[in-house]
């Protein structure tokens, strides 16, 4: 059930305690990919997981602004602080759990959200009347060339929303991009912002990600989300007994 399209009476008749909350970002993805890449992909994978899951799942509206200050040098990027982001996620889950949807999977499409999501999901599960876990689609697939606006995200967009990929800018995206994320010395990233190491915000080669690969990535991520939904639906979420 999509809360955006449902009425309150539809929700009142909904017999599930399981929900997904997509989270993403509005940030630069190079000259060829839209600012909404992270939320578009999170929503699409969340919807696919809900559709393929054998049972009812509530799909909450997406949180489209995340922890993305590292991209602030590129026009159009929006961001909130980690504290604000955690508060928005926590209170969104609180409102879902108030209506009985107290098992929530946070379907994430933005790398900058990962740390804050794990932290807030732990806080929710320990201190609130809900259980939450984060799911980041690109961590759930078998690929090691994520980049940023690179082959994986471009492939997924070419599959999901080819109309939003500026194909005439792919060469420029590749030429102005960086081969890897950051400037590393002794296992330490010296760069905090993407503009410090990428001229146009791209990391990786977007030309290497075609629509066929995007279809494979989408299916793999959706299958992983379904497996997680099954585990969360079946899990005993009661507080463990104190030891000793």
Short description:
The protein has 244 residues and is α/β, with parallel strands linked by helices. Helix content is 38%, strand content 10%.
Break the fold down into its secondary structure elements and pairings.
Elements: H1 8-12, E1 18-23, H2 37-52, E2 58-59, H3 82-98, E3 103-108, H4 114-127, E4 131-136, H5 151-160, H6 170-175, E5 184-185, E6 188-189, H7 211-234
Parallel strand pairs: 1-2, 1-3, 3-4
Antiparallel strand pairs: 5-6
Helix pairs in contact: 2-5, 2-7, 3-4, 5-7
Order of SSEs, N→C?
Answer: HEHEHEHEHHEEH
How would you write the strand order of the largest sheet?
A: 2-1-3-4
Please report the distance between the alpha carbons of the first and last residues: 43 Å
pLDDT averaged over residues: 97
Please bin the fraction of helical residues.
25-40%
Oligomer: single chain
User: SS-based structural class?
Assistant: alpha/beta
């Amino acid at each position: 059930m999509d809360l955006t399209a449902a009425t309150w009476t539809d929700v009142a008749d909904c017999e599930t305690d399981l929900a997904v909350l997509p989270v993403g970002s509005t940030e630069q993805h190079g000259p060829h990919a839209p600012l909404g890449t992270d939320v578009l992909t999170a929503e699409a994978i969340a919807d696919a997981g809900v559709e393929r899951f054998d049972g009812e799942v509530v799909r909450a509206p997406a949180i489209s602004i995340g922890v993305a200050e590292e991209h602030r040098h590129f026009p159009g990027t929006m961001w909130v602080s980690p504290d604000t982001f955690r508060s928005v996620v926590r209170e969104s889950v609180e409102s879902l759990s108030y209506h009985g949807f107290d098992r929530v999977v946070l379907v994430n499409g933005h790398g900058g959200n990962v740390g804050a999501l794990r932290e807030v999901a732990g806080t929710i599960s320990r201190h609130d009347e809900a259980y939450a876990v984060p799911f980041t689609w690109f961590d759930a697939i078998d690929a090691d060339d994520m980049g940023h606006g690179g082959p994986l995200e471009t492939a997924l967009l070419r599959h999901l929303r080819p109309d939003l990929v500026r194909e005439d800018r792919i060469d420029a995206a590749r030429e102005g991009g960086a081969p890897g994320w950051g400037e590393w010395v002794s296992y330490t990233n010296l760069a905090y912002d993407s503009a410090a190491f990428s001229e146009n915000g791209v990391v990786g080669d977007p030309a290497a990600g075609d629509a066929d690969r995007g279809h494979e990535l989408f299916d793999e991520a959706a299958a992983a989300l379904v497996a997680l939904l099954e585990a969360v639906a079946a899990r005993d979420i009661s507080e463990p007994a104190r030891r000793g």
